[in-house]
Amino acid sequence: MRVLIVGAGLGGLCLAHGLRRAGVEVEVFERRPSTAAVQRSYGIHLDANGLRALHACLPAENWAAFVAATDPAPDVIRFRDPALRTLAVLDREQSDADPVTRRRAVRRDALHRALLLGLDDVVHAGVELTGYADAAGAPVAARFTDGSSAHGDLLVGADGANSRVRAHRLPGLDRVDLGIVNIAGRLPLTAAAAATLPAGLVDGSVNNVVPAGRGWLFASTWTGDDDVTSLVWAWVGDRDSYPADVVERSGTELRDLVVARLSGWAPPLRVLIAATPPDTISPIVLRTMPTLPPWRPGRVTLIGDAAHAMTPMAGVGANTALRDADELCRALTDSGAATAPQSERVGRYEARMRDYANAALARSTRNARNAATGDRLSRLAFRTVLRVARAMPPVRRAVFGP
């Protein structure tokens, strides 16, 4: 079997390793001119699904490089009011957790470097897909802008939210705009500044500040490769709650817009957000794939954002992409599936993927809409439920699950 992967992101590279370990011939095609040109980010929290997939697919050397680049991350979500008083805490920390699947924090670029190790002969940079041909009786042919082509038994679109593979494979299935905009920023924290905030807001856990009215503030801390800890925050609001030109505004204007909405909030938080460097502040328009419908399996399939790009409001996008890679690898290479036709094996992967991806899409979209709501009654009801959940474990389990 020969597999062509379009896109050298996290899911595509994880899949390449898993297939190579199973003896499958694989090539990866990346449109960016250099695989080193990965955009830096605030980082990723990897959960049990993402970690399990990486451990299953990566050679020992890559796994070791990945672990060395990570830090343990608390599996804790806190809800606060604007005075930073705790409304509820969702604590999923387990002292006896499997060391492989214990939650970890890693920068996206560091994870990408760990995934690239050993793939120099597999990844081709500066190769941009224009389309493909999938004619009966001939291999799948991927075609590129430089006039070249590649042929294989299976083509995997791992080429992100604006996937060209998806556009050809499932025309008409594309992201929808939720009418929600996040304004996000990042502020390097001094020890003195961190001391002005509650300890639970600067320990790397996820904090959600929930006002009685419109809006929602996400806040957490992140320690980068340079050992500098930053406060990462995002204000969430319906598009119609902002000025019409919000996505064109400068970092300074966006910062002032958020600070104005924090009138009456805890002074330390307002001071820090007001001090956020403007060049770290940007608007993020939230878009998501709709519920994925069934489709007939074939010799072209999708993983990661190419299949199920979602909002960041559940924190599971990267984990779901890595899970896709492992699920597809298993479907193609497990000994129990070896005698089944390839289309059947691909179909098994796609059925499983749609099941968990649709659940993740629904949760991500629900979280985004709940955070952006302008319905004061709904918000007050939610805050009341949080307070009750904090005091009564049975209610907490009913709201958040076990």
Strand order of the largest sheet: 6-5-14-15-16-13-17
Per the CATH scheme, the topology name of the largest domain is FAD/NAD(P)-binding domain
Q: Main sheet?
A: 7 strands, mixed
Q: Kindly provide the name of the CATH class of the largest domain.
A: Alpha Beta
Mean pLDDT: 92
Query: Could you give the count of β-strands?
Result: 18
Discrete helix count: 13
Shape verdict: globular
CATH architecture of the largest domain: 3-Layer(bba) Sandwich
CATH superfamily of the largest domain: FAD/NAD(P)-binding domain
In percent, how much strand structure appears in the residues? 15-25%
Instruction: Indicate the structural class.
Output: alpha/beta
Note poorly predicted spans.
none
**Number of domain modules:** 2
| Helical fraction | 25-40%
> Over all CA atoms, what is the radius of gyration?
22 Å
| C-alpha termini separation | 42 Å
Describe it.
This protein is α/β, with parallel strands linked by helices. It has two domains: 2-72 and 106-175 and 290-369, FAD/NAD(P)-binding domain, CATH 3.50.50; 178-287 and 371-400, FAD/NAD(P)-binding domain. It contains 13 helices and 18 strands. Helix 3 runs antiparallel to helix 4.
List the helices and strands and how they pair.
Layout: E1 2-6, H1 10-21, E2 25-30, E3 44-46, H2 48-57, H3 60-68, E4 71-72, E5 76-80, E6 86-91, E7 104-106, H4 108-116, E8 123-125, E9 129-133, E10 140-144, E11 149-152, E12 154-157, H5 164-169, E13 176-188, H6 191-194, E14 206-209, E15 216-223, E16 229-238, H7 251-261, H8 267-274, E17 282-288, E18 300-302, H9 305-308, H10 317-333, H11 342-372, H12 376-391, H13 393-400
Helix pairs in contact: 1-2, 1-4, 1-10, 2-10, 3-4, 10-11, 12-13
